[in-house]
Design goal:
Blueprint lengths: L19 H11 L4 H18 L3 H18 L1 H16 L5 H22 L2
Helix pairs in contact: 1-3, 2-3, 3-4, 3-5, 4-5
């Protein structure tokens, strides 16, 4: 069996730093329709951090949005995620392919999250 050569996946943009301005700027380039959701999540994270006296909600916000951006900035990953999500949303839950689609959605998210948290 011969080894397959895998070319690195092209990136639409470089991976941003996990600071709010960099995440917002990156999201504006790869998924501008989600900026309002980003802002609402940021507001909730700050409110929760203040209420609980913890930076954890802010860190969770950063990881969530860095993960979303990681998926969108890599066309290969975004296409895989959209295909799996589309299958999960259209297949019957009793169809074994539904579970495969859900597993692939989770695998994509885990891959993206690992990339941004290990960076």
């Amino acid at each position: 069996m011969t080894a397959q050569h895998h070319e690195p996946s092209p990136e639409l943009i470089p991976r941003p730093e996990m600071a709010f301005p960099e995440l917002r700027a990156a999201l504006a380039r790869v998924a501008p329709s989600r900026l309002a959701e980003f802002q609402a999540d940021r507001d909730l994270a700050f409110t929760s951090a203040t209420q609980h006296g913890s930076f954890r909600p802010i860190r969770l916000f950063q990881v969530k949005w860095a993960t979303e951006i990681e998926i969108e900035r890599l066309p290969r990953l975004a296409a895989r995620y959209r295909a799996a999500l589309d299958a999960a949303n259209t297949l019957d839950r009793h169809d074994p392919k539904w579970r495969e689609a859900m597993d692939d959605c989770l695998a994509v998210r885990e891959e993206a999250q690992a990339a941004v948290t290990d960076a």
